[in-house]
Design goal:
Length: 129
Amino acid sequence: FKEVNDVYGHPMGDQVLIRLSQTVAASVRRSDLLVRWGGEEFALLLADTDAQAAYETAKKLRLLVSHTIFEQVGTVTASFGVAQVLPGDNAETLVARADNALYRAKLNGRNRVELSLSVVDPLELSPTL
């Protein structure tokens, strides 16, 4: 979205984010929760869904986003980090694993879905140069 904001301006970037969130929200179940996490990042909580089903859902949403035409901008892509609640998890550990998977999706070329590792390895969170 930095490129969208730089080329088309922040108001257009905001419009793309709004339409993107509406498109995704219309494509998930009523029991699921989509929230804007910050900037251009969103969190999607899928009730009663295991990691494999969440991964498949994220793949479908990634394709949906990449095939959606945004007025004046054209198409955009989305990367997804998927994590499943594990025994002993709290909000912080779950979000850390999802964020780690999202970071790997971005590092591996963007417009991807990555499934989290079972535990967060601090080295995984640091960029390799």
